[in-house]
Structures are given as structure tokens and as C-alpha cells.
């Protein structure tokens, strides 16, 4: 199929596509903060209404303990192949607000990009799937069964969809492949298929000492300061010389990078100077020193402190020994590390490091398993061909340093190919102020997905 027809449709609908996405992006559907729960429900209403409006059979799947799932489908022929599209309608918190050039939930279009929280992660990208199907329905070219499942907890653990997929066991979600766009292309002009995702163990450490804050002059000395104790603990997570994580048994299940991967990644363009400039750091000195930058990001595990809190945080001084101090700590895992094992190793290590005179609690907040996908078979070939048709080159095969919690559950439960084809760009600033999504990427993504669905329909 020529791309000309879909490009003409996009040109005609361009303003409407943007307007629809703007309305979606206006909704502050932050899942990590309960104060946004009403906005989460507004996002559910918007998404379900939009699915119905474009011609999909749609229902909202309620949850007793979490946010609803939005399910939609169009079954054109039970004998045809079925593609399941996944996306998430929740977004990261917008903080720090003062670093946004335009308000995070008042979408702004500048220099060919749309700026808003959720623009690329993941509202803009899930919109690609919906608009591709909308085009095929309007043009009577949809010959593939399509299903959509959207969740509202990807940024806060994904427990609701995890439970649903396991309970469903491939009944409602029965398909021939899962298509996910929640990642970025390797670089502009370098379309990518992701075959590996790091997993994650997210924890919180709380170190407590005296029953209440104490005067640091009257009690300083004999009383162990929980903030000092916390600093001692987290300061020992990384070996300064090698860059390795020091948790005992942490690397026990890690398999080294394959030689073919090293060769393929080494051929990818990577400008270390530009990379440093883009994130505002003087040197890339973190991680394991024996591995390249891409190898550290894509295929090596990490341990990072995500936040430290406790004690006096106000203006000026307050001389106290705080009653407690805490830290959020996450570990990115690689195949074949097991989250349960890693958390056990971490908890035991934290308790071992804790000095006498304080109590330590270690809480497990969320986990996600790492994934490694075999890029073989007809579905992958059709996706590769569709990408090459639209972008003018075959996709590069890469791993991704981030985590999409539900992928491993799809992989294990549905037993079908998982296509991780993202249309974001590395500088989109997901999880950061001034998150953006290129309108060119949006429109070419619609073209790519429609090409893929037509090819699958011709099987």
C-alpha cells in the first residue's frame, strides 16, 4: 500500500488530530498523587468517549483498588489476525513547575513540537495508534482486528492491569501480537525496534532514632543522628573506583552482553559531547567503568537514590537531630535478574550497613521484570517493512534503559510477539520539565502504524 493515501488523510485532519490531542493533554492525570484522582477519571471519560467516537466498541473496566482500564476493539473478521495496542493515560507529576516554559497542562506548540506533561509519555504515542485505526476505519481499509487496553497506573506501579492480564489469561485480550509505543527512536531519522527493557525494584528506606527531634547542642554526640546514619548507608551502595553496585549477590543472575550486540551498538552514532550537553553534566562518570555509555544504559543494572528527606527543610537554620530520615532508592534490573531476589539482597544489605543506635525499615514499593524479546517471525518482518516504507530505512535494534512494567506480563501470559516501536525522540524530556512530542513524529507514526495494520490484514 502506498503511503500517499494516509498522508492525504493526515493533511486533511491535521488540525483535528492536534486539537484532540491538546484536549487529552490538558487533563492532569497524575497517578502517583491521590489529589489528582478526579483528573484520572476525567482522562478515562475522555479516552472512552474518543474510542467510541472513532467507531470502536468500548468499555471501562473498573477496579476495586486502582484506576480503571479502558478497553476498546473492532473485530472485522474473526479469521483475521488481531493486534492488541497498549498505552497508558496517566502521567508523571509536573514538578518542578517553575522550570516549565509554558504550563504543563496548557499544551503549547512551538517549533513543530507540542509541549505538555504526557506529550510523549504516553498520550501522544497512544494517540498514534488510535488515529491510525481511525484513518483505516474511515477509509474502509481496516482488515485487521484491533484491540486496545489503556491503563492509568503505569507511572505508579501498574498493579491493576497486571492483575487483569493475569486473571484474563488471554481471553478478552487474545491476540496475535502486542504493539506498544512508549519509548523513543534511537535518534532523529533512526527508527527503532526495542528488544530489551530493564526491570526495576523501587524501595523506600526509613531510618529512625529518637522519639522526636532533639536539640543538637543538648543531645548532639551520644545520640546517633538518623540523617547521618542514612547518609552512611546510601553512601556505600556504589563502589567509587569500579562504579559497581556493592550489594552482595547483586550481579549473580546477570548475563554479559552478547558479542553481536556490542558490535551493532558500536556502529550506532553516539556523540558523547552532545549527550553531556543535552543533560547538562560535565562528565559521564557514573556506572561501571568497563562498559560503554550505551552498554551501561541498556544492559547493565544500577542502584540510584531518587530522593532524600527528613530533618529541617525550611528557610534559615534549625539546630536539631531529626527523629528520622528517609530515601527513595530504585534499582534497574537487566535480564535475568529477579526482582524478588534483588529486593531481599538489598534489604539485608541496608540492615547490615545500619549503625547501632537507629532502627531501619525497608519498604518495597513496586517491581517490574526485565524483558528480552526475540525479534524473529512474520509479525516482526511486517513491522520492519512498514517502518522502512515510511522512514526510508530499516529500524535499528536497540535495548531501552527504562521500564514498561506490563511488558513482561504480556510476554509471559499472552505468549505472542511484543512489538516495542516508539516514536518519541531522545530529547523529548519525558519525566522532566518541558516534555515535548514532535508533530512530525506524531504524523509519521500514524502513517507507520496504518501501513503495518494493512500489511497484517493482507496475511
Structural class given helices, strands, pairing? alpha+beta
Q: Order of strands in the sheet with the most strands?
A: 1-2-6-3-7-17
Number of strand elements: 18
Number of domains: 2
CATH topology of the largest domain: Aminopeptidase
Q: What is the helix fraction of residues, given as a range?
A: 25-40%
Task: Detail the poorly predicted runs.
Answer: none
List the total number of helices: 13
CATH H-level name of the largest domain... which superfamily? Answer: Zn peptidases
CATH class of the largest domain: Alpha Beta
> How confident overall, as mean pLDDT?
96
Radius of gyration from the alpha-carbon trace, in angstroms: 24 Å
Q: Largest beta sheet, briefly? A: 6 strands, mixed
Distance between the termini: 13 Å
How much strand?
Answer: 15-25%
Give the arrangement of secondary structure elements.
Layout: H1 4-25, H2 37-53, E1 57-61, E2 69-74, E3 82-88, E4 108-110, E5 113-115, H3 119-138, E6 145-151, H4 159-168, E7 177-180, E8 192-197, E9 199-208, E10 214-215, H5 216-219, H6 226-234, H7 259-266, H8 272-279, H9 293-299, E11 302-310, E12 320-321, E13 324-333, H10 339-353, E14 359-368, E15 371-372, H11 378-391, E16 396-400, H12 406-414, E17 418-420, E18 436-438, H13 439-457
Parallel strand pairs: 3-6, 3-7, 7-17, 8-16
Antiparallel strand pairs: 1-2, 2-6, 4-5, 5-18, 8-15, 9-13, 9-14, 10-12, 11-13
Amino acid at each position: 500500500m502506498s503511503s500517499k493515501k494516509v498522508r492525504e488523510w493526515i493533511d486533511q485532519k491535521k488540525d483535528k488530530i492536534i486539537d484532540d490531542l491538546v484536549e487529552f493533554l490538558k487533563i492532569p492525570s497524575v497517578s502517583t498523587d491521590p489529589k489528582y484522582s478526579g483528573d484520572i477519571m476525567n482522562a478515562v471519560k475522555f479516552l472512552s468517549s474518543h474510542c467510541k467516537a472513532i467507531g470502536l466498541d468500548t468499555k471501562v473496566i473498573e477496579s476495586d483498588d486502582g484506576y480503571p482500564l479502558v478497553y476498546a476493539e473492532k473485530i472485522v473478521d474473526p479469521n483475521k489476525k488481531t493486534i492488541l495496542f497498549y498505552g497508558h493515560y496517566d502521567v508523571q507529576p509536573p514538578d518542578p513547575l517553575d522550570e516549565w516554559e509554558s504550563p504543563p497542562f496548557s499544551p503549547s506548540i512551538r517549533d513543530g513540537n507540542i509541549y505538555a506533561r504526557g506529550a510523549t509519555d504516553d498520550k501522544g504515542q497512544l494517540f498514534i495508534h488510535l488515529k491510525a485505526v481511525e484513518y483505516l476505519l474511515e477509509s474502509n481499509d481496516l482488515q485487521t482486528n484491533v484491540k486496545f487496553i489503556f491503563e492509568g497506573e503505569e507511572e505508579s506501579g501498574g498493579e491493576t492491569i497486571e492483575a487483569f492480564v493475569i486473571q484474563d489469561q488471554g481471553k478478552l485480550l487474545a491476540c496475535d501480537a502486542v504493539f506498544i509505543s512508549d519509548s523513543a527512536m534511537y535518534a532523529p531519522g533512526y527508527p527503532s525496534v526495542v528488544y530489551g527493557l530493564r526491570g526495576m525494584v523501587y524501595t523506600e528506606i526509613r531510618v529512625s532514632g529518637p522519639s522526636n527531634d532533639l536539640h543538637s547542642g543538648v543531645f548532639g554526640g551520644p545520640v546517633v543522628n538518623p540523617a547521618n546514619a542514612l547518609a552512611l548507608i546510601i553512601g556505600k551502595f556504589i563502589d567509587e573506583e569500579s562504579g559497581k553496585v556493592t550489594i552482595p549477590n547483586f550481579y549473580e543472575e546477570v548475563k554479559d552482553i552478547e558479542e553481536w550486540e556490542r558490535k551493532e551498538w558500536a556502529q550506532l552514532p553516539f556523540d558523547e559531547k552532545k549527550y553531556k550537553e543535552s543533560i547538562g553534566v560535565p562528565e559521564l562518570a557514573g556506572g561501571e567503568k568497563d562498559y560503554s555509555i550505551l552498554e551501561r544504559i541498556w544492559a547493565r543494572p544500577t542502584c540510584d537514590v531518587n530522593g532524600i528527606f527528613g530533618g529541617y527543610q525550611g528557610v534559615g537554620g534549625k539546630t536539631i537531630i531529626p527523629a528520622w530520615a528517609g530515601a527513595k532508592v530504585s534499582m534497574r534490573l537487566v535480564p535475568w535478574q529477579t526482582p524478588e531476589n534483588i529486593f531481599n539482597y538489598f534489604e539485608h544489605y541496608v540492615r547490615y550497613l545500619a549503625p547501632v543506635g537507629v532502627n531501619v525499615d525497608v519498604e518495597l514499593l513496586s517491581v517490574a521484570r526485565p524483558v528480552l524479546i526475540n525479534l524473529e517471525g512474520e509479525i516482526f518482518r511486517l513491522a520492519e517493512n512498514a517502518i522502512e516504507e515510511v522512514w526510508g530505512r530499516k529500524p535499528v535494534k536497540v535495548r531501552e534503559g527504562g521500564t514498561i512494567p506490563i511488558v513482561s506480563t504480556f510476554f509471559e501470559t499472552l505468549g505472542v510477539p511484543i512489538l516495542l516501536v516508539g516514536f518519541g525522540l531522545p530529547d523529548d524530556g519525558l519525566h522532566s520539565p518541558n516534555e515535548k512530542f514532535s508533530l512530525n513524529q506524531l504524523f509519521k507514526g500514524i502513517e507507520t502504524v496504518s501501513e503495518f495494520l494493512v500489511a497484517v490484514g493482507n496475511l
